[in-house]
Amino acid sequence: SGIGKCVAMDLARRNARTILACRSRERGQAAVEEIRAATGNPAVVLRLLDTGSLASVRAFASAVLREESRLDVLVNNAGVTGLPFAITSEGLEQTFATNYLGPFLLTNLLLG
């Protein structure tokens, strides 16, 4: 939703293969279908990613590196605010992990 969806829509309009990395399969698939319908670009795909989980980030990056021949643009747009204090299963504060550590790790893993 929001800025991320607008960026994905614009990339798809430019005929780019566009990977939506989403926490929610249902919301992500709905966005994929909407973007495909609006742009006519069938190369819009969903991959699950929770940037608050470093294990999820590692699995996502591994799959992208394995499945994609190249990656030209990365838009780190995930973020949360206003959540109650919580610790992830990996021992990290949830907001910090989601907004900073996950995107930082993802970027570094995809640099190749």
Automatic annotation (TrEMBL):
Transmembrane segments: none
Molecular function in Gene Ontology: oxidoreductase activity
Source superkingdom: Eukaryota
Record's keyword terms, sorted: Oxidoreductase
A Pfam family hit: adh_short
Family: Belongs to the short-chain dehydrogenases/reductases (SDR) family.
Name the UniProt record assigns to this protein: RDH13 dehydrogenase
